[in-house]
Amino acid sequence: MKVSTTIFLYFFISFSFAQTNTLYFEKNKADLTPKSIYQLNELAKQLQVKENFGDIAIIGHTDTDASEGYNQKLALERARSVKKFFMEKSLCNRLHLLSKGEKNTVNQNLTEEQKRLNRRVEIVLNYSNGDIEGVHQFTHLNSNLFGFFEQEKQVFTIDPKRDTVIKTKHGIEVDINKGIFKRVGYNQAVEIHITEYYDKSSFILGNMTTRTSNNGILESRGMINISALQNDDSLKLGQDQKINIFFPDRNLNDGTNIFVGSQQKNEIIWKQMSDDGQERQAGGHTAWYEEGKPFVERDRWWYEMRGTDPYKFSSNEKKGKIKIDSVLIEEEEYKQVLTLSSSTLGWINCDRFVNLKVERTDVLVSYDGEIEPSVYLVFKDFNGMMPYTSRENEVFVFDNIPIDLEATVVGVYRLADSEDIYYAEKPISTNKLASANLRFTKISKTEFEEKLNQL
After folding, report:
1. Handedness of CA 232, 233, 239, 245 (dihedral sign)
2. Which of 122, 147, 257, 406 is the most interior residue, by most CB within 10 Å?
3. How many Cβ atoms sit within 10 Å of the Cβ of residue 328?
4. Are 440 and 368 contacting, i.e. CB atoms less than 8 angstroms apart?
């Protein structure tokens, strides 16, 4: 006889402010029920609207009717069903799948009603290591690592009454117009603080990745964190004001855009800036009309690369005839063409999506030891790297990675009150059975930096 089930959803706030939701499953099943799907839809909407990118733990449980091994696998499959739902909703929250099997029943498991209450998945929002009693606790000390390699902050002093162009050590130019800041005192100087992340080595040292808020993969032209201060008070851009940023590695029509970052724990999640928040100068047109008639005359202009040289093309269309001219443009005009504009300060990234229309696979990474490392998938053929997107018990998972890419899996951690760094790397091809096991060795700070420079 088929036993009908009812889904219950309850909330409580723990001391760590983790929010828990519980879903229930049919006997010997890992499929989501219609009611579970409804509740998960509502939960996904809340996360997307609030842009909650915090970690989520998905903990699978069973009753005690079958063998322990069977129940362990069934509990994991139930957790995977919830993970699959969240991934299809393009949530970028890191997911921690934990299989408890029959170990954490909530009752004596004697009646059918008691068994039903044990067939469950617990979803813990804003999960932090240590929130869940009875779950193996990893020792995670990598905040010590990232502080150990804090990137140099460049400080520039400007006059808010004058137009200013700042050039950073890596050649990024930031154009700041006069009167751009909100609530600024014009008789005092403004400090501009800029930190740059330009290559894979600096990405890892700063715990930066090229992952977007919808789990897309980016190829970076450079990342900066820019802030403005006056008398130690943070300044914001005024309404409809923008800063102009020139990234020297940009090319004409290379598909790059401005992405802005939000910080979650020690990680930055990137989101493409809306069209009204950024501007790109790539071309334009002007047309003249007579009332009730098609255009009388139209001028158009655009830029193209011919070999390694940039050209500005212009066309004039009049009375059905088109005249096209071209001219080799000067370096300064070419820079203006490649300049991107941002309506916000903070974390800014000049990136483009890696749109590989190929099959996707999951890359699985295991490791030896009790210390939870920071783990990255560093791509060889473009300037990008991904953090792990989920974890199944003690295995890291990089989900939905394009196949046939050459990459290196990098793991690193540092113990507290020590300058010793533990490092592991494993070259990998992202085929359908891609996996790696990391074995860590102790290296010095100098050796660590040398290894990163070779990626």
Report:
1. positive
2. 122
3. 10
4. yes
Question: Contact at 8 Å (CB) between 160 and 142?
Answer: no
Residue 443 pairs with which residues in a beta bridge?
421
Query: Which residues make Cβ contacts (< 8 Å) with residue 78, sequence separation at least 6?
Result: 25, 30, 60, 61, 62, 121
- Which residue in this structure is represented by tokens 């789990």? 215
74 DSSP 8-state letter: H
- Give the Cα separation of 410 and 396 in Å (integer): 12
pLDDT along the chain (455 residues), means of 10: 35 47 95 94 88 87 95 96 93 90 94 95 83 45 60 92 91 91 93 93 86 83 93 93 88 81 76 62 53 62 70 74 70 73 91 84 90 91 91 92 94 81 94 92 91 91
Q: What CA–CA distance (Å, rounded) separates 415 from 311?
A: 55
Q: What is the DSSP letter of 356?
A: -
Residue 391 zone, left/alpha/beta (φ > 0; ψ -120 to 50; rest): beta
CA distance 196 to 248: 13
What is the side-by-side strand order in the sheet with 340-342?
A: 164-167, 173-176, 243-246, 340-342, 278-280
d(Cα 135, Cα 59) in Å, to the nearest integer? 10
Residue 272 to residue 260: CA distance in whole angstroms: 6
Residues 6+ away with beta carbon under 8 Å from 19:
11, 12, 13, 124, 125, 126
The C-alpha atoms of residue 116 and residue 292 are separated, in whole angstroms, by: 74
| Under 8 Å between Cβ of 372 and 129 | yes
248 vs 215, 275, 338, 345, CA distance in Å?
Answer: 27, 22, 9, 19
CB 124 within 8 A of CB 36: no
Q: Tell me which DSSP letter residue 145 carries.
A: H
For residue 81, count other CB atoms closer than 10 A to its CB.
Answer: 20
DSSP count for the chain of H helices, then E strands: 7, 29
Q: Are strands 278-280 and 374-379 parallel, antiparallel or unpaired?
A: unpaired
Contact 349, 241 (CB under 8 A): no
Helix, strand or coil, per DSSP, at residue 39: helix
Listed in sequence order, the residues at least 6 apart from 330 whose beta carbon sits closer than 8 Å to its beta carbon are: none
d(CA 86, CA 89): 5
What's at 81, amino acid-wise?
Answer: S
